[in-house]
Amino acid sequence: MVNRLDRTFITPLDREDIHQLASDLDDVMDAMDGCARRAQIFRLGVAPQGVRRLTEVIQRMVAVLAEAVSRLKKRRRRDALLRGGEAARRRGDAIYHEALGQMFEKERDAIEIIKWKEIYDNLENTLDQAEDVANVVESITIKHA
Q1: Structural contact between residues 82 and 76, judged by C-beta atoms closer than 8 angstroms
Q2: Residue from 102, 103, 91, 97 nearest 127 by CA
Q3: What is the C-alpha separation between 15 and 29, in angstroms, rounded?
Q4: Using an 8 Å Cβ cutoff, are 93 and 69 in contact?
Q5: HSE, side-chain direction, 13 A CA sphere, residue 3
């Protein structure tokens, strides 16, 4: 995306905004990839319910972001869509805190706690990165309203 941006003379949005959006989207992808790689390295078994729920929230958030980014080109309304993404992020934060509390209460194997805590932290980081993308989309929306 950045290479194509460099070759384009006139852009539909500010170059800085496009670059920031591309960079933040890359951060989301890196966070998801890092989490998947850790799960593979740790040779984890069946994911706890909290991990599955956080993953569903991330899937929803990524779908919201994909729709919001596609609407940038069409200059269609994004505010309600981004509010849905904000609600997903808050839901994800609540799931993260609840799941960590339950894990520390029930799990007795310290190594399993360390492994799953890292997975939870990476999933929560993925949501934070996705929120950064939503903030850039919102900023672009305000500039071009």
Answers
A1: no
A2: 91
A3: 21
A4: no
A5: 0
Q: What is the pLDDT of residues 111-127, one digit of tens each?
A: 999 999 999 999 999 99
Q: Is the dihedral of CA 31, 32, 33, 36 positive or negative?
A: positive
Percent of the chain residues past pLDDT 70, beyond the cut: 83
Amino acid residing at 141: T
Is 54 within 8 Å of 88 (Cβ atoms)? no
pTM recorded for the entire structure: 0.83
pLDDT at 85: 76
Return the exposure string of 60-79: e unless at least 16 CB atoms fall within 10 Å of the residue's CB, then b: bbbebbeebbebbeeeeebe
Closest CA to 75 of 142, 143, 141: 141
